[in-house]
């Protein structure tokens, strides 16, 4: 350690102290925060009061295609290497109030996608406060991709929440929300193939996983095993994190091999509240874990790796706190499972630096403490969700919009990232505020990306020049990892 520069030595010592301190507790919830404090997220309250774009508020009807010319598209959106195909304001969609939920403000949130194996049609699944909206990607004017609005699956909860998350396994979508009595909705995506363009349809779910999980923040799916993991389950008793079966918001496993009958599959609670995760059948460089089912969890206070191969007896593999941690939020593996790229949701606000992405290198160990390499972006915007495809990293960075980074530099000496394209969906500013984009889905064909924002849904086209910088997964990894992943995810 003496060979490290002084700041790095201090960072390493801090991380080592945090790890040793954490491992000293038989129950992780005894460390750092009480359950009540975990629910008192200032950033969540701020997000609920997020200010809509003042510039976009005057746009009440969808915008059509506009090329990125001289750094701007549609005279509104700063951009580089990404064109606008369609913008649909959330206020132009159905904003009906269902059940007992009244007085809500319509906002966009999560987004996912699905490609029908029968028709080849591609679909955008847009999360919003009161429902999940469905769009078919169609051929529009000039042969450009466009969106056809098909209808919505209403929020079945007794309250509404902007925090909604959507994932796909085979031909079904699984939807959760931080809304009382919402549970996990199961939706048959094949119904979309029969939906008529130009006709609004109110859809129904085929199953509701409610009694075991009333409401939750997020969910993830391992397509190899047919397992869903509900995370961040929250209860209604004094705002304390609680899950009906899995204690305080840990990994709540659900067997979804039979979509019409989701079944409880086990718990992992040692890491307390799990905010987001990626669960995979591990194919990375650490031989001892190849073929094992691992979950990489963003747990508010640290990154963890958990072996969930045995559903009845999950085992923690490693825990990774880091310096200047503020709110460990979300991350994604590179396609070779060597690197985990992590975002911290409130560090930009707390410490005043540019958008920070932590780079964890798991080339040798999934358990030994490490000092992550830090990448800082060109804006002060807060990072939210990020995903990798063909060696490119697609980040939704709130006020700064979609940012696309090349990961080639991860494999050349000290790991680095390089921003190569962007599309700013929030014209007002790039401030470190909870405004703009929440998430994106980059697994559609031909460089089409769906980006969801508080203000509405964007369909974007990444240029051929940018896409030419994407790596060939077979050449880099020796396996068509990205292609198989996209297929498994429904993209």
Give an overview in words.
- The structure is a single chain.
- The protein has 491 residues and is mainly β.
- Helices cover 12% and strands 36% of the residues.
- It has helices at 6-23, 35-39, 42-48, 191-194, 347-351, 464-467, 473-477, 481-489; strands spanning 72-73, 77-80, 82-89, 108-115, 122-128, 131-139, 145-154, 164-169, 172-177, 184-188, 201-202, 207-209, 216-222, 227-233, 251-255, 263-268, 276-281, 293-298, 303-307, 315-320, 328-333, 339-344, 356-361, 373-376, 385-389, 392-396, 402-406, 418-423, 437-441, 448-453, 456-462.
- The strands form seven sheets. It has a six-stranded antiparallel β-sheet with strand order 1-2-28-27-26-25, with no helix packed on it. The protein has a five-stranded mixed β-sheet with strand order 4-5-6-7-11, with no helix packed on it.
- Strand 4 and strand 5 (122-128) form a beta hairpin.
- The protein is globular.
- The termini are far apart.
- Residues 1-8, 21-40, 237-241 and 480-491 have low confidence and may be disordered.
């Amino acid at each position: 350690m003496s060979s490290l520069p002084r700041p790095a030595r201090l960072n390493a010592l801090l991380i080592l102290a945090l790890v040793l301190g954490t491992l000293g507790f038989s129950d992780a919830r005894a460390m750092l925060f009480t359950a009540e404090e975990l629910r008192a997220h200032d950033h969540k309250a701020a997000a609920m009061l997020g200010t809509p774009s003042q510039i976009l508020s005057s746009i009440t009807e969808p915008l059509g295609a506009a090329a990125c010319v001289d750094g701007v598209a549609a005279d509104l959106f700063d951009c580089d290497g990404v064109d606008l195909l369609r913008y649909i304001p959330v206020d132009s969609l159905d904003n009906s109030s269902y059940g007992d939920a009244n007085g809500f403000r319509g906002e966009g949130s999560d987004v996912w996608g699905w490609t029908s194996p029968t028709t080849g049609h591609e679909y955008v699944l847009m999360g919003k406060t009161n429902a999940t909206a469905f769009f078919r990607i169609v051929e529009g004017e000039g042969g450009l991709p466009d969106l056809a609005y098909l209808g919505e699956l209403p929020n079945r909860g007794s309250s509404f929440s902007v925090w909604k998350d959507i994932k796909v396994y085979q031909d079904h979508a699984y939807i959760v929300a931080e809304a009382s009595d919402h549970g996990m909705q199961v939706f048959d995506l094949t119904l979309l193939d029969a939906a008529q363009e130009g006709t609004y349809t109110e859809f129904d779910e085929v199953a509701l996983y409610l009694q075991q999980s009333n409401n939750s923040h997020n969910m993830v799916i391992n397509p190899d095993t047919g397992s869903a993991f509900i995370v961040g389950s929250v209860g209604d008793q004094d705002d304390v994190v609680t899950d009906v079966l899995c204690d305080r918001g840990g990994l709540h496993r659900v067997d979804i091999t039979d979509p019409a009958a989701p079944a409880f599959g086990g718990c992992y609670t040692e890491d307390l509240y799990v905010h987001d995760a990626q669960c995979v059948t591990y194919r990375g460089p650490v031989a001892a874990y190849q073929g094992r089912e691992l979950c990489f969890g963003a747990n508010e206070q640290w990154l963890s790796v958990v072996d969930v191969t045995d559903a009845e007896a999950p085992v923690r593999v490693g825990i990774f706190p880091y310096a200047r941690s503020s709110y460990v939020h979300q991350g994604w593996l590179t396609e070779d499972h060597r690197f985990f790229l992590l975002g911290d949701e409130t560090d930009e606000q707390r410490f005043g630096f540019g958008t920070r992405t932590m780079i964890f290198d798991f080339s040798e160990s999934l358990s030994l403490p490490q000092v992550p390499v830090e990448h800082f972006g060109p804006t002060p915007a807060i990072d939210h969700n990020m995903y990798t495809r063909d060696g490119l990293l697609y980040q939704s960075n709130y006020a700064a919009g979609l940012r696309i980074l090349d990961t080639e530099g991860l494999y050349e000496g000290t790991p680095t990232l390089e921003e190569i394209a962007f599309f700013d969906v929030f014209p007002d500013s790039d401030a470190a505020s909870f405004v703009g984009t929440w998430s994106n889905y980059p697994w559609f064909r031909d460089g089409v990306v769906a980006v969801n924002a508080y203000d509405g849904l964007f369909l974007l086209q990444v240029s051929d020049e940018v896409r030419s910088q994407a790596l060939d997964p077979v050449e880099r990894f020796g396996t068509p990892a990205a292609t198989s992943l996209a297929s498994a995810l429904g993209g």
